[in-house]
Amino acid sequence: MSQLATPPVLAEVIRSGFTEGRHHGSLVLLAADGSVEFALGDPGAPVFPRSTAKPFQAVATLRAGLAIEGELLALAASSHSAESFHLDGVRAILGSAGLDESALRTPADLPLDEAEAELLLVAGGRRAPILMDCSGKHAGWLAACVANGWDTGSYLDPAHPIQELARDALAEGTGETPVHTGVDGCGAPLLAVTLTGLARSYRSLVLAAEGSAQRRVADAMRAHPEYVAGTRRADTWLMRAVPGALSKMGAEAVQVVALPDGRALAFKIDDGAERARGPVLAAALRRLGVTGADDTVERIGAAPLLGGGAPVGAVRAAF
Asked: Where does the pLDDT of residue 6 fall: very low under 50, low under 70, confident under 90, or very high at 90 and above?
């Protein structure tokens, strides 16, 4: 597989008119027919998709026979903010299988959303497994295990039936055989695929036949985006503003979006800088031809730099 010595600059850090830093990475845009319309860097090189793999991990839950729909299915594909409705949903999924929070093997964590984390700490709360942004996915897997009589203690083992289903779903969606298996932040198996494969996988979700596991997951996420992310998150804003859009972030600044006509994008910022995600996503959406959501795209792309509490610059896309 090809590798670039120096990936291109996707975003620049401009402070007081001076270029203070640069964020390198790779990006791919697909046309409606699935062909590559635009690319930067090396989107054919493998990356860890992180949480952008979650829709396919939710497909595995459905293929395991779990009866889950609507907002709870969206939660099973989420990187949630640990808002109260997220936590209620996780408990509902677990409770439907006769389980409680003690079954979760997510590491104890604070809410992903900074506002929720501050509220928790002010109230005297502390880190807990259910607060980890992947607890919805884990709850879905656990409930599927109970429904099939599978062991719940080893559900994160790559050889466990639920993980084999998840691997098959991602391979099917990307059209690739994962080239490396690692461990994600939540403890789940993590499979390396290409950015082009990721873009095509999300395209396959939105174009899947109605009633299929893939389409059920995509439809649940688009109907309940606040369960996929949270009320203060870019994925939610985008799916609310652009009818039929499917959007999901992943750690280390991975992002994938598909539009209902088959257009799609995927990118990764090499250094994992979250401050570059919004500007790069906004620029990619504009280049992909997203219209009718200018205010939302501008909101997603805003990344001001402060000096003495006042804006003195911004992180901006470099393409």
From this structure: confident
